[in-house]
Amino acid sequence: MTNFVSTHWGTYETSKNNQNNIKINKWSKDPNPSDFGLGFLDAATSDLRINQPHIRKEWLKDRHNKKNLRGLDEFVPVSWEEAIDLTASELQNVKKEFGNSSIYAGSYGWASAGRFHHAKSQLNRFFNLFGGFSSSFQSYSYAAAQTLLPHIVGHDLYSFLDEHNTWNTLEKECDLILMFGGMPLKNSQVSAGGVGKHTTEKELRKCVNAGTKFINISPNASDAAKFLNAKQISIIPNTDTALMLSLAYILITSNNYDQKFIEEYTNGFNEFKSYVLGEKNNKPCTPEWASSITSIPVETIKWLAKEISAKKTMVSISWSLQRASAGEQPLWMGITLASMLGHIGTEGGGIGFGYSSVNSTGDVFKKIPWKSLPQGNNKIRDFIPVARITDMLEKPNELFQYDGRKLKYPNIKLIYWAGGNPFHHHQDLNRLVKAWQKPKTIIVNEIWWNAQARHADIIFPANTALERNDIMLNPRDPTIIANKKTISSVGESKSDYEIFSSLANKLGFENLFTENKSELDWLKYLWNESIKVSEEMNIKLPEFNKFWDEGFFEIPIEKTKKIMFKNFRDNPVKNPLNTPSGKIEITSNIIKNYNLKDCKGHPTWIEPYEWLGNKDNFPLHLISNQPEYRLHGQLDNADYSLKNKIKDREPVLINSADAKERNIENNDIVLIFNKRGRVFAGARLSDEVSKGVLVLSTGAWFDPNYEINADLHGNPNVLTKDIGTSLLSQGPTSHTCLVEIRKAEKNEIKKVTIFSKPHIQKKA
């Protein structure tokens, strides 16, 4: 019998042969399945699995004796009973002495595609019953956009994404897709909540076949698939806003923008126009001005302005652009440019944010608000923007600004992390490591001996999706999957639900946490509640047993289309946006009145804190894009990712001219460095990346050697700066990073250690 395992990178068939050996195969119904999930089983059963609870040696000896040994210490295996007792005791002690606000329940990352075994849901439910916790808000993927969009278009990010023009409208009506940051197909292989069928490549090919043209504005030509036949315009990283401002200048001075749309549907254009023309600061945003910033020739800029104004154009902004210094600006300016072109609210034109960033953007499928595990209410109001973890640990009780408010960092004494890995997604990891020493106790539910586990005090071994029953109910995917347990739990590992149930039992609220439901009971509950939701949307789901036996259910997709802001365009008076003016806020008086130095009242060129236009000892710009061979850091220990390493290191793309200047050859081990850290990687020469730019994908498991102060494996976040996009949104700025690179000397190259177990000693 065929079963399924569902993940954020796709759905796979699992089967047993005559020898009872389990195999993972691509799902036959997926038109473009992801290869890297095929190594899931090997990773799940590898020697790197944490097979029982462990306690850090010095913490076990004396939890009050701070020696700053997290990341250096040995581990002692203990029984589940002892680990639960110690954890429950520590939770009670911290709560009693410091209050619930001193507990940071971190669960950030793509932990599980299942609706029930979703780590953040489990963690939130547990700690809400325990009295609450300090939390985080936003996503590392698009934090700046999450804060900006409600001010500009009156939508939260998720409803904005749901409104996107569907691919069938682009295929039918779009002449040109202007891609800032490209549309990398590798990014579309994943989707939060799980993927049934990968559709992005098919839809893009339809656009190509229908005659849609593509222009790729990026320092990395591979951000656009070859079959798009995109015109490549290389740009200095972090300067997209300057280019767009100069396009606006040309449109204004040639009187070639849609004045009727601007007058009827936008607010504050005249103030923006005055800035573009340089009427206040005597710095007009001319093509010459932009060329000096972006390195794009003046004639190319002028040609581009003619192209986008002559054609029905979709202005597409990659999520990656806002993960940079002043990251709010390219999205805001993209919306402004699309407004000037006048195609917002029409088929085939307007603004896009994240086409190909995930699988679901542009699909015709209408979002369904499926039921999830009830999480209760958090009594603690303290929170941080998600990318401000290190600041929080470094600056307890200090004030910070966020979206026009002054807030206070909580004083964190205990961190409990389940799902995700801050040693993957956070910036300036050397700084994080130091701040990570400050809490009294750090507890994690973790699968593998990765950096997060090695920097914790108490480690509970967690299951993979192969070891649990679950349901993939992605609100943005029409395929529902019955994820059936494929293998027995590895070692003594347990699901997050089992771990938190045991803790709740020890703390006296197990009945409240479990409601006396088993795993299967909860799945039936979620399914039956979702049946009620589906009925309201005229969708008929089968009974649970029928669905479970068949393994999947496909929701019929209506042959409809969505057009972003169509109702608003049809009648802006009856259908105003949820902004102060009811229109698109090209100038936001709310943001203007915040009086922020790094985010003005309208789109503005704000020089990045470090960039190729102001380089000193570090002459190369490092881009840390999403990897092709895994999801972020997930499955970096699987064969598909490992076989694409260079001498066990993560590959870094370097332009051949930059390599020649430094006597670097293909497959050399290189050292990338700046004032924040040092990283070893493997050189891969490529002329698809611009001169002056390196590309080192995120997600290589952090493998620090503290003796030589270097990451041995190729984690770019050792080099990235940990500072907010602006005081408005405080998002991450991983794509603003200058470095230097050189060939590594033989005597300084150390063996990669992250794929070997840490030192584990017997309990004394």
What does this structure look like?
- The chain is an alpha/beta fold and 764 residues long.
- The chain folds into three domains: 49-138 and 370-476 and 485-554, Rossmann fold (3-Layer(aba) Sandwich); 165-361 and 563-594, 3-Layer(aba) Sandwich (Dimethylsulfoxide Reductase, domain 2), CATH 3.40.228; 612-748, Barwin-like endoglucanases (Beta Barrel), CATH 2.40.40.20.
- It is built from 26 helices and 31 strands.
- Helix 3 (80-98) crosses helix 19.
- The radius of gyration is 26 Å and the shape is globular.
Number of domains: 3
The dominant shape is globular
| Fraction of residues in H or I helices | 25-40%
Strand content: 15-25%
Average the pLDDT over all residues and give the rounded result: 95
- Give me the oligomer status: single chain
Helix/strand class: alpha/beta
SS element count, helices = 26
The profile of the biggest β sheet is: 6 strands, mixed
Which CATH class of the largest domain applies here? Alpha Beta
* CATH fold assignment of the largest domain: Rossmann fold
Radius of gyration: 26 Å
Ranges with pLDDT <50 over ≥5 residues? none
CATH architecture descriptor name of the largest domain: 3-Layer(aba) Sandwich
Give the total of beta strands: 31
Strand order of the largest sheet: 5-4-19-18-17-6
Alpha-carbon distance between the two ends: 47 Å
